[in-house]
Amino acid sequence: MSAADTTTAKVPPTRPSTPPGAGGGAGEGAGEGAGGAERPARRRRAGGPAALPWALLAPCLLVLLLVLGYPLARLVTLSFQKFGQPQLWGFQEPEQVGFANFARILGDGEFWAVVVRTVVFAGGAVILTMVLGMLTALLLQRVSGWVKTLVNIALVASWGMPVIVATAIFKWLFDTDYGVLNWLLSRLPGVDMTGHNWFADGPQGLAVIMLLVVWGAVPFVAITLSAGLTQVPKELEEAARLDGAGSWGVFRYVTLPVLKPIIVMLTTLSVIWDMGVFPQVFVMRNGHPEAEFQLLTTYSYDKAFVVNDYGGGSAIALVTVVLLLGVVAVYMRQMLKIGEVE
User: Fold this and answer.
1) What pTM value is reported for the model?
2) Alpha helices in the chain (DSSP H)
3) Which of 4, 146, 157, 297 fits a 20 to 30 Å CA distance from 272?
4) Are 304 and 105 in contact (CB under 8 A)?
5) How far apart are CA 1 and CA 4, in angstroms?
């Protein structure tokens, strides 16, 4: 074999050129045909994903509109009216009073005392719920499988217990004469809690109700945070330990940033739920909460259905809704910031 044979590349034969008129027309026609077939498909793909979520959400939005839309519209209407028993029974027509109901409740010192009490109550309940929920979730990551299963069963059982049943149990635990807690505390050296009334004053009684609320809220928070902890990368934790970080350093600089979206969501939901606490207070105080036990929900209920001032009660409820919308706005802002960082 010569050197020319080894260095010369073999070139494949070229196709015979087609006449411009024959090939061009066919290519253009094929291109137009393909493009004509692709354009409607692209339009369908572009329009489909935009409309599909709204179609899937339509039944839920319709139910929310029926269940919440009319009551909220009625609430807003009543808050601007003078509406009492004469109007309820049809003896008189509702009288439009503008912002008089709001001016009356905002100028009432009792209303502001209830607002402060509600904020303190909700804040304490949220802090306790989040701390105990986080500790429980961290504990679930460090126990054996069968212990974790038993704890999860107990959490789900306590979470699924009806509020009325849980309230009745707590009433028995803290009963003055037959309460288990008084009996247990009286067994301690130097402690005599026989006949102690936990509801003799507002702060102590609200602390008991707060424990009831926290007891019912911790399971959801603990289970959610436990699921979130499974998404924390183990590599980041190992890297932090190799860099000399202790348990607290790993939790603060690795675990918390990963769990931040979940913590923000749970905190916001807890604030909304704890600001709207009603059955625990109402049932614990036998349907007649005293002044020092009044929260915004029970205060609005008393104004509307005990005093028969439906306009004033609606105004208090609407102010509560506005406060909760402020909490939701803060939540949305935090989630948007988290999304921008990610």
Assistant:
1) 0.78
2) 3-7, 20-64, 70-79, 85-88, 100-106, 109-140, 145-160, 163-173, 180-186, 202-229, 234-242, 247-250, 256-275, 279-284, 296-301, 310-341
3) 157
4) no
5) 8
Q: Which residues of the chain have pLDDT under 50?
A: 1-11, 17-38, 40-41, 43-44, 46
pLDDT score recorded for residue 314: 92
Neighbours of 295 (CB within 10 A): 27
Cα of first residue to Cα of last residue in the chain, in angstroms, is: 65
Strand partners, 96: 81
CB 240 within 8 A of CB 253: yes
Could you tell me which residues come within 8 angstroms of residue 258 by beta carbon, excluding any fewer than 6 positions away?
228, 231, 232, 233
Tokens of 252: 């603060």
Q: Judging by DSSP bridges, how do beta strands 81-82 and 95-96 pair with one another?
A: antiparallel
Angle separating helix axes 145-160 and 109-140, nearest 10 degrees: 160
Please work out, in degrees rounded to the nearest 5, the angle formed at the alpha carbon of residue 298 by the alpha carbons of 325 and 118. Answer: 55
Amino acid at 31: G
Residues 329-339: tens digit of each pLDDT: 888 887 777 66
266's CB contacts (< 8 A; 6+ apart) are: 130, 133, 220, 221, 224, 225
